[in-house]
């Protein structure tokens, strides 16, 4: 009986085994769910790339320019463009290293980063025991050579007295030469002795000269020892602020020609003389020149604009960044500016002079120094921002709108403008546009904020 029940439970035996249903293929879980995930991913990818896939609208653009005399006519200064680039604050023309001129071990550092120092102030001291002993040795040597001079001078005096004695003896016997009292041999001997004593005086004088030379050498050795002792105190070469400290007490300084910072203790800079090193893209490098006006701003002082001019180019391009570096001297640096702070600069490139059509009414004054304001003697209009009249839409009194191309995103943006004088082919913009902006001429009615556009620059000048 038990054997029959076991056979009924086996796969091959019994009628019950024949009635067990086969498992389903579950097509929904094996194919449906992966297909749904794939379609969802493709949908998200298409949504993210919708701006790229959307065709760009071709529009005609023109630059906003700065002119002297506005729409009223006269000679106009047309700058090429406004070039924007990143930069970094740095010392002008460079930071100054304060090295130790003597190899040795640092005993004390007297300044820290950010401290102001005066020219000649001690910034570090080296262990000076050896230098003190060397100076004492040099002083003793100088004293010894000075005594040697006195001894040589005394020897000269002795030899000179012997010369006088020999001369007296010779003068006494010289008249008696040839007589019976004094022989010729004795007179000759007296004469030779006088000559010998004179030679001894010459030798003694040479000893004095030798001693004087030794004194001069000893004095130079003393000066060298005093200079070495003086150099154990490292002093600031300029007045300024400590930019970075490169040494610490106990460190051995070994000046090395192959390492410019081997013996440097601190680096100083003058906060009253700062500049911006700017990486100008190579595509804009030909547009800027030495003397171009620059506006710089930093995140530390976001509400302040620092003005400067391009002072020089670095005549070597950076192949990795595809840029060329220029130096911008800041005219009014603030105490808050520090080297290596990031900065943003706007370079107003110099342009050429052009003639504006005559016949329009005088420019509207908007205050001293402002667009359309009186900028010179005789009420001559100052520089004003001009935009093409074809770019101005929805004019309502002194307000209007214009479509501007956002270059980084290649999309259209709509801006509210405040207008001054409106002429036949141009309009003075008091607010809303800046020189270098690209405005869309005769904007299509289908244009909407964020629309992707392909700009075609017009060749017509204002």
What tags apply to this protein structure?
462 residues; alpha+beta; Elongation Factor Tu (Ef-tu), domain 3; six-stranded antiparallel beta barrel; 6 helices; elongated
Describe the structure.
There is one protein chain. This protein is α+β, with helices and mostly antiparallel strands and 462 residues long. Helix content is 28%, strand content 32%. The chain is built from 6 helices and 25 strands. The chain has helices at residues 2-9, 27-48, 50-53, 129-173, 184-230, 282-285, and strands spanning 57-63, 65-68, 74-78, 82-91, 96-99, 104-109, 116-117, 122-126, 233-235, 240-245, 252-253, 264-269, 274-281, 293-298, 306-313, 323-330, 342-348, 352-356, 383-388, 392-396, 399-406, 411-422, 426-431, 438-441, 453-457. It starts with a helix and ends in a 5-residue tail after the last strand. Mean pLDDT is 80; it is low at 72-79 and 352-381.
Estimated share of beta-strand residues: 25-35%
* CA distance, first residue to last residue: 112 Å
Number of helices: 6
Strand ordering within the main sheet: 2-19-23-22-21-20
What value does the average pLDDT take? 80
Assign the CATH architecture of the largest domain: Beta Barrel
Number of domains: 4
Question: Shape from CA axes?
Answer: elongated
Q: Could you estimate the helical fraction of the residues in percent? A: 25-40%
Secondary-structure-based class equals: alpha+beta
CATH fold name of the largest domain, please? conserved putative lor/sdh protein from methanococcus maripaludis s2 fold
How many DSSP-defined strands? 25
Radius of gyration: 47 Å
CATH level 1 name of the largest domain? Mainly Beta
For the sheet with most strands, the description reads: 6 strands, antiparallel
| Uncertain regions spanning at least 5 consecutive residues | 72-79, 352-381
């Amino acid at each position: 009986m038990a054997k029959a029940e076991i056979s009924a439970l086996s796969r091959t035996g019994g009628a019950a085994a024949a009635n067990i249903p086969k498992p389903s293929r579950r097509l929904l879980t094996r194919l449906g769910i992966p297909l749904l995930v794939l379609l969802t991913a493709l949908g998200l990818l298409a949504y993210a790339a919708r701006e790229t896939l959307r065709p760009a609208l071709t529009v005609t653009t023109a630059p906003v320019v700065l002119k002297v005399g506005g729409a009223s006519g006269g000679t106009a200064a047309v700058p090429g463009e406004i070039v924007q680039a990143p930069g970094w604050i740095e010392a002008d023309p460079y930071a100054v290293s304060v090295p130790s001129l003597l190899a040795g071990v640092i005993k004390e550092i007297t300044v820290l980063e950010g401290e102001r120092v005066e020219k000649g102030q001690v910034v570090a001291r080296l262990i000076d025991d050896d230098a003190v002993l060397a100076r004492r040795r040099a002083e003793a040597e100088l004293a010894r050579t000075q005594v040697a001079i006195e001894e040589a001078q005394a020897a000269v005096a002795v030899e000179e007295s012997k010369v006088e004695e020999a001369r007296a003896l010779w003068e006494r016997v010289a008249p008696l030469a040839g007589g019976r009292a004094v022989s010729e041999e004795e007179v000759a001997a007296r004469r030779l002795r006088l000559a010998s004593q004179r030679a001894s005086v010459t030798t003694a004088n040479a000893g004095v000269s030798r001693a004087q030379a030794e004194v001069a050498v000893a004095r130079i050795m003393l000066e060298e020892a005093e200079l070495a002792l003086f150099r154990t105190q490292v002093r600031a070469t300029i007045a300024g602020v400590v930019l970075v400290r490169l040494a610490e007490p106990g460190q051995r300084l070994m000046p090395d020609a192959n390492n410019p910072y081997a013996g440097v203790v601190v680096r100083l800079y003058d906060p009253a003389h700062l500049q911006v090193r700017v990486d100008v893209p190579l595509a804009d490098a030909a547009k800027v020149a030495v003397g171009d006006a620059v506006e710089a701003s930093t995140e530390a002082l976001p509400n302040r604009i620092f003005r400067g001019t391009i002072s020089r180019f670095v005549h070597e391009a950076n192949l990795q960044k595809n840029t060329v570096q220029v130096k911008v001297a800041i005219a009014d640096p603030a105490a808050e500016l520090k080297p290596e702070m990031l900065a943003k600069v706007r370079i107003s490139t110099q342009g050429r002079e052009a003639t504006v059509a005559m016949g329009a009414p005088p420019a509207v004054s908007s205050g001293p120094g402002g667009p359309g304001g009186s900028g010179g003697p005789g009420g001559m209009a100052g520089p004003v921002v001009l935009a093409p009249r074809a770019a101005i839409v929805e004019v309502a009194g002194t307000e209007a709108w214009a479509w501007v191309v956002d270059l980084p995103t290649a999309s259209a943006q709509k801006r509210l403008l405040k207008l001054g004088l409106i002429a036949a082919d141009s309009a003075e913009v008091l607010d809303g546009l800046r020189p270098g902006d690209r405005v869309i001429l005769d904007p299509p009615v289908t244009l909407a904020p964020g629309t992707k556009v392909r700009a075609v620059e017009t060749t017509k000048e204002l």
